[in-house]
User: What shape does this take?
Amino acid sequence: MQPLIITVAPTGAELTVDQTPHLPITPQQLGAVAAKVQEAGASIIHVHCRNDDGTNTHSVERFAAAYDAIRASSDLIVQFSTGGAIGMTPKERAAPLQLRPEMGSLTCGTVNFGDDVFENSFPIMRGILTEMKRYDVRPELEIFDKGHLSNARRLEREGILELPQHVDFVLGVPGGLDATVQNLADLVDNLPTGCTWSVAGIGRAQLPMALAAVAMDGHVRVGLEDNIYYSRGRLASNEELVARVRRIAAEAGREVCTPSQARALLGLIHREAVATGEAASRP
Ligand code: KMH
Ligand code: ZN
Assistant: This one.
């Protein structure tokens, strides 16, 4: 079995601070969480940004500050969300890629998202991929439904997406594929050759999907973006969710990857934040 990559998605775009006191909102809070989750065993951080009042933002300045804060406190692989929040324009969603994070998420198709629609038409996906190529950002393919794998293959045939890539199955979104072990196994069976994969189970599905991935030699995403509870009625912190997966994996004989081991496994090159210049000027 290979060492385990734990991705943490600490903030997301849907939660409010009223729902949990553990949500990192500011760049400083994201930096503090980055240090704790790395210590707990995470190697990738999936970043959404908020304004100080908790509202969503995809402003380049805010991502720059978050990138600097995370780099100052950790060595985590920094992955920017390009999904953003429902209602953001494709241009807004792609803008922070100019900061050249090591990775960016790319949802591979439109999906119902509760009562909303998370729009990812082919023109939107092509637009985001063009920006990723321009700034040399590695996509992580987010797969909410089985047809999203077909869409990724279609983008490869068009020559706009290189495969293999790292894939994250996001299972249990109301409107997407259910989070069951059968569905996960079917997706893994249909993975394009050479792709690595992780799974993010939504809500109560987070823990069982993590257990399945540990057993199946896959990788795991946890964090408050996907689930705010440690157990029934007990709110979790991001670092607790990461630490639990690490303990389970150790019991199963899998060590967690350090960020540099994860970079080697995914073929990534470490990048300093160049955003505000602060990280770049540090000795
Ligand atoms: N907030 C969701 C609408 C991503 O980050 O790439 C989309 C999302 C996916 O979270
Ligand atoms: Zn996200």
Summary: The two ends are 37 Å apart (CA to CA). The CA atoms of residues 223 and 249 lie 17 Å apart.
